[in-house]
Amino acid sequence: MYSDLTTMPRKDPTDGVIRVAIWREYKARCFFCGDLIDRLGDMHLDHYMPRTLRGTETFKEICQHDGIPDFFEFDSYYNLVPTHPACNLKKSDRIFTPTTRSHSLEEILSHVKALEIEEAKIRKNIASSEPLGYVYAEWKAGSIQLEEIERLLESNTTDALIITFAYNRRNFETDLTDDHLSRVLKDKLVSELKSEFKDVSILKEGQISDICFLKVALWGVQLYQFKQFYSEDWYWYETAAFDTTFKRDYRQFDSIVSMSWPIKGHKGHEEKIEAIKEEKDIIS
Q1: Higher pLDDT, 24 or 143
Q2: Contacts of residue 135, Cβ cutoff 8 Å, sequence gap at least 6
Q3: Calpha distance 269→176 (Å, rounded)
Q4: Does 254 score more than 60 pLDDT?
Q5: Closest to 20 in 3D by CA, of 146, 109, 112, 204
């Protein structure tokens, strides 16, 4: 079965690309029960040969009996299979009978070549798409959740507009905490974006001095489609312009933004602060 192999490349089971490749190749079906797995995010990757066997005498005996090479890689396409969480937990570290093992390992082996091709295709897709590559890099850096990158890779989406929204805390004279003010304004912006655009990914949020920002990806949206969008209190930038501004001088943020984009300025802060205070009272 493995006579032509000299190595088994290791695959990181937590890598979104690896997970999506397996999801696609196995047609989103559980390896053990054969039923569909409802969501990619729900998929568990099971090690068919349990990793607890690594380096044990039991595994050496299995290798001799089954003709498994001594370089067998537990974290590889030769051993990783998609499962329902319940099926994975039920199987646990179970070692199957020789007949069942032989049949299953041969089936797993039959998918390996296609998995390598699918992985290469996905990585090429990421490399050739600046927005998708950017989002993937954010995920690798820990800025966004695995479910988000899986959703994007699963949908084959590559075209996106990456925008940074920002507001200056100095524009608000309020006794609200910065965290509460930021949360209310951010939730409002995200709600407006999701009501206007179909696919919105929140990539990063943070604060630089008095400037709070939220970086988002709008999938399948072009700049001309976005330019009509307006959210009170927030200025918007294409990401490169935003980053350049802060490299220049974040203290000139308001004047630089006003010169950069012909959009509405701040207004109605007193009414807004009262509304935020009312929400705070309701929450508390």
Answers
A1: 24
A2: 144, 148, 149, 152, 160, 201, 203, 217
A3: 13
A4: no
A5: 146
Task: Provide the whole-model pTM.
Answer: 0.71
Q: Is 122 left (phi over 0), alpha (psi -120 to 50) or beta?
A: alpha
What is the β-pairing status of strands 235-238 and 160-168?
antiparallel
Q: Which residue do the tokens 């200056």 mark?
A: 168
HEC string for 135-156: HHHHHHCCCCCHHHHHHHHHHC
The rounded distance, in Å, linking the Cα atoms of 18 and 13 is 7
Q: What's the confidence (pLDDT) of residue 74?
A: 97
How far is Cα 131 from Cα 151, in angstroms, rounded to an integer?
Answer: 14
> In degrees, to the nearest 5, what angle opens at C-alpha 98 toward C-alphas 55 and 58?
20
pLDDT in tens, 132-178: 888 888 888 887 888 888 877 877 778 888 899 988 887 777 666 77
Residue 131, classified by CB atoms within 10 Å of its CB into exposed (0-12), middle (13-18) or buried (19+), is: buried
Exposed/middle/buried for 205, CB within 10 Å: 0-12, 13-18, 19+?
Answer: middle
Neighbours of 138 (CB within 10 A): 20
* Both tokens assigned to 25: 């190749």
The predicted model gives 41-58 an average pLDDT of 94
Residues 6+ apart with CB under 8 A from 67: 1, 2
CB atoms within 10 A of CB 123: 14
